[in-house]
From TrEMBL:
One of its GO terms (molecular function) is polynucleotide 3'-phosphatase activity. NCBIfam families: DNA-3'-Pase, HAD-SF-IIIA. Coiled coil: none annotated. This is PNK FHA domain-containing protein. One of its GO terms (biological process) is DNA repair. InterPro entries: HAD-like_sf (IPR036412), HAD-SF_hydro_IIIA (IPR006549), HAD_sf (IPR023214), P-loop_NTPase (IPR027417), PNK3P (IPR013954), Polynucleotide_phosphatase (IPR006551). It comes from Schistosoma rodhaini.
C-alpha cells in the first residue's frame, strides 16, 4: 500500500468510526461472533426481581438481599472463572446455557464467606450493548447463578467500554463509594480472581484472551489469583506476559524521570522540521508547547485536512521565509519526501524530529484521550498496525541537517494523572 493509500485509509477509518456507536468504536478485544439469545417473554421478565438491581448508564448492579458489607472483598470475574457454557460452545446459546466451571466453587466461596469476605462479581459484559444478549435474560441468568451458589453475592457488570470496563477500576470505585454501606475496603485483605491473566497456551488450555483481570487487580492494588489458584490452591508458577508499556514506570523509572527535551534555539531564517511518530505519541503537544512559541508555523492534517493541503501550506509558509514544522505521522519515506523536495527547491535546511514514544505507549495515550474527551475522534487498532508495518526509520541520506529524538515527558501536574498512570488497555 502506498503512502497516499495509507493516508486515505486513515482518513476513511476515522470518518467511519465517527459514525459507529461508542461501545463498538472502543472495543479493544477481538470481535466475537454474535450469540443467539432467547427473546425474553413476559413471564421471563416477571421472574426478575428488579428490586435487587440498580441500572446506570454503563453498569448493571445486583445485590442479594442478604449480602452484607465488609472490609474484605473476594472479587471474581464471571465467564471462564465461575461459569462456562454447558453446551461446550465458545459462547452461550442462551441465558440458560451455563454451568459451574468445577465442583470446588461452592465450597470454596462458602469458605471465604465464613471468613467474613463479601463475594463480589466484577465482569465486563459489553456484549449486552452490542446486542449479543439482552438485559432481562442476563439479569435472570445472574439470579439463577446466585441461586445455584446459595451464597449472598453482589455483582457489578460493565456494559460499555468506558471507565467501568476492566482493567479500569470504575466498578471497584462504585463498590467502594456506593456499594459497601460506607465501610472502607481493606485492600491488603482483599483479592480478585479472573481468567484473563495474560498466560500463554499450556496443555489443553488456550492462550488467555487478554490480561484484563490481572491488570484490574494491579490497578486497584489488591492481590490477584488465577481461577486455578483460587479453586484448587495451585502454586503461583504459571508464566504470564504483561503489556509492553508499563504506565507506572513513568513515575518510578529513573531513566524516564531524567529524560530531558533537547535544547532548541529560535530560528533566524526559514527551515523545515518533519515530526515522525504514531498518533497520540505527543507530537502535537511538543509542537504547540515547544516549537510554536519559538516562531515555527505548525502545519498538520488535523487542521488543514489532506496531505495535499499540507504540502500547499508548507510551500506558502516557506515562501514567506517562515520556519515550518509538519505535525503529521510521516512514518514512511514517501510521506517525508514530498516535503523534503519543497525544502530543496527553496534551499532551506530540513530536520527530522522522531518521537521516542512506542506504539504501545501511543495506544495508551489514545485510550486516555478517549476516556477523558468524549469528542475525541478515536483511532483503530488496524490503523496502528498498518502504520507499524509501513514505518521506515528516517536516515541522514534522506537529506536532513540533523535527526533528533524527542522523549516523552510526563506532566506530573496534568489533570487525571492517577488515571493516566494505570493500565488502560486489556493487553
Amino acid at each position: 500500500m502506498s503512502s497516499r493509500s495509507l493516508d486515505a485509509f486513515i482518513q476513511f477509518s476515522c470518518y467511519t468510526m465517527k459514525r459507529q456507536p461508542y461501545s463498538v468504536i472502543n472495543e479493544t478485544s477481538k470481535p466475537k461472533m454474535r450469540q443467539m439469545t432467547l427473546v425474553p417473554t413476559e413471564n421471563l421478565s416477571q421472574s426478575i426481581n428488579e428490586e435487587l438491581w440498580e441500572n446506570t448508564v454503563s453498569l448493571l448492579v445486583y445485590t442479594h438481599p442478604k449480602c452484607e458489607p465488609s472490609s474484605k472483598i473476594l472479587g471474581l470475574d464471571m465467564d471462564g472463572t465461575i461459569i462456562v457454557p454447558s453446551s461446550g460452545k465458545v459462547f452461550p446459546k442462551d441465558y440458560t446455557d451455563w454451568k459451574l466451571i468445577n465442583d470446588n466453587i461452592i465450597s470454596k466461596l462458602k469458605e471465604y464467606f465464613d471468613k467474613g469476605y463479601k463475594i463480589v462479581l466484577l465482569s465486563n459484559q459489553g456484549g449486552i450493548t452490542k446486542g449479543y444478549q439482552d438485559i432481562p435474560s442476563f439479569k435472570l441468568k445472574i439470579q439463577n447463578i446466585v441461586d445455584k451458589l446459595n451464597i449472598p453475592i453482589q455483582g457489578f457488570f460493565s456494559i460499555l467500554n468506558d471507565k467501568n470496563r476492566k482493567p479500569l477500576t470504575g466498578m471497584w470505585d462504585f463498590l467502594n463509594d456506593k456499594g459497601n454501606a460506607g465501610i472502607p475496603i481493606d485492600l491488603s485483605a482483599s483479592l480478585y480472581s479472573g481468567d484473563a491473566a495474560g498466560r500463554p497456551a499450556s496443555g489443553k488450555r488456550k492462550k488467555d484472551h487478554s490480561c484484563a483481570d490481572r491488570l484490574f487487580a494491579q490497578n486497584v492494588g489488591i492481590r490477584f489469583l488465577t481461577p486455578e489458584q483460587l479453586w484448587f490452591d495451585q502454586l503461583d508458577t504459571e508464566k504470564f506476559e504483561m503489556p509492553k508499556f508499563n504506565p507506572i514506570e513513568l513515575l518510578t523509572n529513573d531513566d524516564v524521570q531524567n529524560s530531558k527535551l533537547p535544547i532548541i534555539n529560535r530560528p533566524n531564517k526559514s527551515e523545515l522540521i518533519l515530526m515522525v511518530g504514531y498518533p497520540a505519541s505527543g507530537k502535537s503537544h511538543f509542537c504547540n508547547r515547544v516549537l510554536a512559541p519559538l516562531g515555527y508555523e505548525v502545519i498538520s492534517r488535523d487542521n488543514v485536512g489532506t496531505w495535499q493541503k499540507c504540502v500547499q501550506a508548507v510551500e506558502q509558509a516557506i515562501s514567506k521565509s517562515l520556519p515550518v514544522v509538519v505535525d503529521n505521522t510521516n512514518m514512511d519515506l514517501e510521506s517525508r519526501t514530498r516535503y523534503i523536495k519543497i525544502a530543496k527547491v527553496w534551499d532551506i535546511p530540513v530536520k527530522c524530529f522522531i518521537m521516542e514514544t512506542s506504539m504501545e505507549h501511543a495506544q495508551h495515550n489514545e485510550r486516555f484521550r478517549a476516556l477523558t474527551n468524549s469528542s475525541h475522534k478515536q483511532i483503530s487498532q488496524m490503523v496502528y498496525n498498518m502504520m507499524k508495518s509501513k514505518y521506515e526509520k528516517p536516515t541522514m541520506e534522506e537529506g536532513y541537517q540533523e535527526i533528533v529524538t524527542i522523549p516523552f515527558i510526563l506532566d506530573k501536574n496534568m489533570e487525571n494523572l492517577s488515571l493516566y498512570c494505570k493500565y488502560l488497555l486489556e493487553k
